[in-house]
Design a protein that fits this description.
The chain has one domain (2-236): Metallo-beta-lactamase, Chain A. Helix 6 (188-200) links the parallel strand 10 (163-165) and strand 11. It has helices at 39-49, 67-70, 73-80, 91-95, 105-114, 188-200, 221-236, and strands at residues 2-5, 8-10, 21-25, 28-32, 57-61, 83-87, 129-131, 142-145, 154-158, 163-165, 208-210. It is of the alpha/beta class and 237 residues long. The strands form 2 sheets. A 7-stranded mixed sheet has the order 1-2-3-4-5-6-7, covered by helices on one side. Helix 6 packs across helix 7. The structure holds zinc ion.
Length: 237
Amino acid sequence: MKQIIPGLWDIDEIGDAVHCYLWEWDGGVTLIDTGMPSHARTILDALMHNNYPLHTVTRVIVTHSDLDHAGGLAKIRRATGASVVCHAVEKELLEHPNRRLLGSALLRASMTLLSPLPAFHQTPVIPQELVVDGDTLPEGFTVIHTPGHTPGHIALLHREKRLLIAGDALANRGGKLQGPASLFTPDGKNAQRSIWKLAKKYGDDYETIVFGHGPAILSNGGKRVKALASQVFAAEI
Ligand SMILES: [Zn+2]
């Protein structure tokens, strides 16, 4: 595991195609996202090797229900007994992953064909705790509803640590800050509004950003998201 800032670890044992994180706080350990189905075992092993016995993982916060973020969830929840936390609107997709809309009908058809294969099979999970925009979590995070990529996507802001966990509301693929991949984003307009929200409403509140995809930004994160938002909306006019 790689420490990003004190308290936040990237579980990099799963590689760098997708990131999931461990957050250490007074109440124990919280995971943020769980990788692909095949990553569950690796994540559980990484926890044990790094002295986080599985029962210390009390909560798993899911930024959104996609296969690469919630694929490992069912297994990790079974192994740890953790409570699963997601946005109220995302609950339906965690419980019925096949209802996920994608940016193209062709892609959706392909995913339906692939879904019986173990690598792509997402076991439904019923979340225990539903959150909405503005909620404050015991870990110290403020929930920011950032729909577009999925309807109940959330980012997490820790004001004291000046940290934004962006999920897929933003990406930093190849070190280029951008919005989520359009093929996997059925509501591009809302995804843009979510970038605007992260810039306009919260842009002064964070320096560090971690992503579902791409390396962390360690400084000037808020400024960079503000610059991205003005580019996105300038292109619109
Ligand atoms: Zn993703």
